[in-house]
Specification:
Blueprint: H1 2-35, H2 39-54, E1 58-64, E2 70-77, H3 81-86, E3 89-91, H4 95-103, E4 107-110, H5 113-119, H6 122-126, E5 129-137, E6 140-149, H7 157-222, H8 226-255, H9 263-278, E7 281-286, H10 295-316, E8 320-328, E9 331-338, H11 354-359, H12 362-371, E10 375-380, E11 386-393
Parallel strand pairs: 7-8
Antiparallel strand pairs: 1-2, 1-6, 2-3, 4-5, 5-6, 8-9, 9-11, 10-11
Helix pairs in contact: 1-2, 1-7, 2-7, 7-8, 8-10, 9-10, 10-12
Length: 401
Amino acid sequence: MAETATTEHETADARGSYKLQALRVLSEVTTSLAGEHDIEALLGRFLGTMMRLAGATAGAVRVAASGGAHLRLVAAVGLPPEVSERERLVDLDCGACGIAMREGEAREIRGLEPCFARTGLPYFRDCCSMVVVPLRYQGRILGTYNLFLATPGTIPEEVALLFGSIGEHLGMALENARLERENLRMTLTRERQLMANEVHDSLAQTLAYIKMRLAVAQESLAAGERDRTGKYLGDIRQALDTAYGDLRELLGQFRSRMDPLGLVPALERLPETFADRTGIALQFANEVPDLALTADQEVQVYHIVQEALANVTRHSGARRARLALRERGDEIEVTVEDDGLGFFAPGGPPDEHPQRARHLGIGIMRERAQRLGGRIETANLPQGGARVQLVFPRRAAPAAA
């Protein structure tokens, strides 16, 4: 009876020690995920931990390759080089591993003869068993740990549960990394399209005008019409000056980066730099005590303000301008006003002048406003000048690509 009590006590101590180790491992996984950007490197670092938990002599970690039909080797420990090379890319539904991953549970596979038959590598013939730990998220297979054992053994229930929890955590991390990469690609594509639009609305149109003027100048020169030739050359010179100014403005916008502290500090710095660059006095008024926008919202607002101020510089002939942030219920208003020539004849809506609106970059600002779930409003001011106003919800729903 005493021996039985001692054995039970030792078993309880072992289980308590294992639970403590399991909590430590889960804590380490969770903490690492919070500050890790390279998820594949994290998976490789945890490979040793997974091998210790399973009592494995070798191991490999794989992630789903593009297309989702294969698994790509990320890291391996203890495997012969020829095995790592041969197993660099395997089918997702390959043999017993594929079954384990479809079931979504960690399981031990005894006897790796199918792996030997598939690859012809002696390592699989000599290896006793393999533990498969799938990394899944919402039913999707995102990766797996393969842990190779020299001696057979049943996975304890506690270890299987721990493997399942680790698989869920790491599967979620893989999915988040995939979504982040997709969002980055979409953002880069949109930014390049907007950049192309900006170049088209400024340089491309001016260069097209220069090309046409050059053709008629050549015709008048061939006809000996010196006065007309001189006029056309003057037009070309003036257009070249405009194109050069537009190019400098575009380069300034592309190189400009928002203040790391956020949108409001970036806007607070604009008046000084704007006045030095353009000679136009700019006043900034912030009437929103707590703006609290997301990083993407701040970037879109900043670029819209830049485009509106570029229009003031290029086309308004203004001496003063004003930038303001206000709240309108659940919406935010960002207003740029100037005392220049205005958009159009008083009383005429801007939509009656689509060429003028496009030239002023209104289309570009509207594209960015749509990404905020908002709109761009333009108007002439009663006292003279123009107003461009961005209105968007503080909690904007994501716009369709």
